[in-house]
Amino acid sequence: MADFGFSISKPQSIDTNDMDVGRLQALEAKVPSFKRCINCGACTATCSAGQFGGFNIRRIHNLYRWDQRKGLEKELQQCMLCGKCTLVCPRGVNLRYLIIRLRKALADNK
Amino acid sequence: MKEREKPVHGDDNPKPREVKRRLKSTKRISRRKRLEFEEVELPLQVAIIGGGVAGMEAASVLTEHRCPVILFEARPELGVNVKNKYKIFPDFSDAGRLVETMTKAMDHPLITVNKDTEIVEIIREPDAYTLLDNKGVPHTVPAVLLASGYEPFDAKRKEELGFGIYEGVINSLQLEDMLREHKVLNSLGEDPRRIVFLQCVGSRDEKVGNHYCSKICCITAVKQAIEVKRQLPDTEVYVFYMDLRLWGQGYEELYREAQEQYSVRFVRGRISEAASTFDGRVQIKSEDTLLGQPLKMVTDLLVLMIGMEASPGTQKLGKTCGLEGPYGFVRSKSPHLEDNLSDKPGFFLAGTCKRPMHIAEAVNDGRAAALEIIKYLRK
Lengths: 110, 379
Ligand SMILES: Cc1cc2nc3c(=O)[nH]c(=O)nc-3n(C[C@H](O)[C@H](O)[C@H](O)COP(=O)(O)OP(=O)(O)OC[C@H]3O[C@@H](n4cnc5c(N)ncnc54)[C@H](O)[C@@H]3O)c2cc1C
Ligand code: SF4
Ligand code: SF4
Ligand code: SF4
Hints:
heterodimer; A: 7 helices; 49% helix; globular; B: alpha/beta; FAD/NAD(P)-binding domain; 3 domains; 5-stranded parallel beta sheet; elongated; binds flavin-adenine dinucleotide; binds iron/sulfur cluster
């Protein structure tokens, strides 16, 4: 086969057919305010961990929405649970508690 | 709302019994002169609370139908909540001129305008209402139109944005003043290199208790961004938004124009906080949510797009009348066919005392309310 100088990489799209909605529903049941997020980004903007470590709390909870859990547990270790994100959220999402529940869910569901 | 059977009376105020008698004669008149009733002057005054665009339009229409009006405005001037703008969306027409036209129409033999007169209490009588003003004078009328309007959100309540603390942080009304003077300057009195607009200040924000969208601020930001660029073509303009709601006719076109002709940059992200820099500028934090990356930006001016809240008059009268709706706005009888009515016969509603509206909506609403009042009085 001719070498074109590049290879076909793994598909980057999320296969939503594989996803287990139950995990998201369980988290939503614990933290109902999570459903109200409108992805405004204020939590990420204010997060001190995000300014330095490339950590993005909004991206993390969106990945979990699509049941994309790979690497999340490790990434979430960067969060200091300072609660600033909770203070700025215009939709009143209880982010700090969400993170605690998310950590637990990820640890329990390896 | 207080209810009572025996009211106090001012000298030239009809007693409720007299109101009833004159109402009866109104009915006789309309029956007799059904076809040309516009020519018959109604023997009773309608009270309008609030001399904004809704109240003034209602007054005009009532007098066209030969109905005498007494208009109360708490402030020394009529139409202040429109006059405090420079050019208004969607057509960049002159706010001052619009108010001038409407104010002129108030100079009418059937209209009595009481400025500097705030209605502080409303008492329901049998077949009438007695309004008490801040000077303690009672006014008894068979019908009342509440058009007590809105109040711009006080951005000091969003402490993290630094309004009232940093000079470079202003609200959209202050920018209107600057645009009117053609003096859009930073805190050092220089031409700004960069201006940042922030949407949804005081609206769609659980932290200030307002879940609703004020619906006029997205288009106001687009309008103001264009005006800034017309006056200062070299200034960079950014608009930070959560959602852009450009729902009205011509709004989306203005949005395109802002992007294409004026190079206004729209960023999808809420600004979480502002801080001042050593040189008197403002540093903001946000996230480009479409990129998934936090960002910082230094700007000469941060313009907060403040929303609309129920005015103190609306909140107070709504409460005393038992018409208090969500967020201190007043509640109409039903939203489709009875939006100018309240659940009290003879008590009508118009304009932004009910919810955020733009000028044309408030004007149309005032007009519609006037026709409901005519219908009620001639029934
Ligand atoms: C920043 C900003 C920009 C805007 N720009 C535009 C624009 O470009 N184009 C547009 O179409 N719309 C615009 N609007 C909306 C516009 O201002 C309103 O639609 C309009 O003013 C509503 O008129 P109104 O008569 O309902 O209420 P108001 O204008 O608020 O009038 C109500 C009046 O009632 C008086 N009052 C209150 N209580 C009492 C009392 N107890 N006794 C006596 N008087 C009382 C008040 O003093 C006030 O004058 C803007 C709004 C904001 C906040
Ligand atoms: S601040 Fe709240 S609404 Fe905004 S992205 Fe974060 S969780 Fe969602
Ligand atoms: S609680 Fe965690 S995610 Fe929220 S601001 Fe603090 S470090 Fe960031
Ligand atoms: S109109 Fe736009 S800026 Fe105003 S509250 Fe609604 S979404 Fe926010």
